[in-house]
């Protein structure tokens, strides 16, 4: 029972498949504080940059709206043109400011989680309409963290606001003594720098929230050991299925290998435990190739096929073991075995000549030169 309980604990890091599926569902780490910081800081910078343009637009619109001829006030067409012109001037002045805000609103999400669009995240969910689920979220640990963040944000912003007001109190008290237009421009700058200071105070909140959101997202995606095993089975297949596939692959490979045995020049045996079939093609050049090899029952099958197709079988235990362990299928034999295999092929050629009645019977092969590093017991 304890084993089952421990196996259900989410202690394993998420797999690549789990992370990919979560991203497809729109589940990525996001920080509202980072987005808020980007928008407020971007808006404050935009106000500083475009504050003069906005003020100039405001003055022009006010002059156009209040400096009217008496006849224009009773002309609906003139009033409509005045309204459209004021709206156009306001839009023209607000465009740079709105572009700043738009860019800032994109930079925030890009800074954490990147660009993502998921239809699954947009799909309606019954749990979102369930009042019980809503109450649970209200009294959850996440809601408590959000409350603490809100209080901390309020405290930090309030403290910075008081410091800013205190530092600008002298300038603020001097505004009534300035001419109207310079005072208005001075006010815009003061508001802009104040907003920059207040926005910068949110850096502290974001610096705490971003690591927390990354940690919280990672904890939500953690998996149990059983989930890891289930995913492995789904992606790699069940062990019994994989075993059956490997068995079929081995059988197919053995059938292909057995089809090559009749093409061999010689089959060298242990004589019972190992069998290797070699093929040499003078036209292609290179060294002799290993076209079949096997141990025990497979070695017996190679000898059996070789006998059926009148391929010469030559007992040479040391050479058979050396070729078996040093050479893979369809590869050339190593350079250290060139001399030994050359003697074998020369012997096979002389034996075939003798069997065709064109020469003397060759003398049996003696000890073949096998390098020490290629010998196997």
UniProtKB/TrEMBL annotation:
A cellular component term, taken from the record's GO annotations: plasma membrane
Listed transmembrane segments = 34-54, 97-122, 143-165, 190-215
- Pfam name, any one: Bac_export_2
- Keywords, ordered alphabetically: Bacterial flagellum biogenesis, Bacterial flagellum protein export, Cell membrane, Cell projection, Cilium, Flagellum, Membrane, Protein transport, Transmembrane, Transmembrane helix, Transport
Q: Which intervals of the chain are annotated as region Disordered?
A: 1-25
Could you tell me the superkingdom of the organism this chain comes from?
Bacteria
The record's Gene Ontology biological-process terms are: bacterial-type flagellum assembly; protein secretion
Q: What is its main location?
A: membrane
- Basic and acidic residues biased stretches: 7-25
Q: How does it sit in the membrane?
A: Multi-pass membrane protein
Checking InterPro entries in the record gives: FlhB, T3SS_substrate_exporter, T3SS_substrate_exporter_C
The UniProt function text for this chain reads: Required for formation of the rod structure in the basal body of the flagellar apparatus. Together with FliI and FliH, may constitute the export apparatus of flagellin.
Tell me which family the UniProt entry assigns to this protein. Answer: Belongs to the type III secretion exporter family.
Name this polypeptide is given: Flagellar biosynthetic protein FlhB
Organism the protein comes from = Atopomonas hussainii
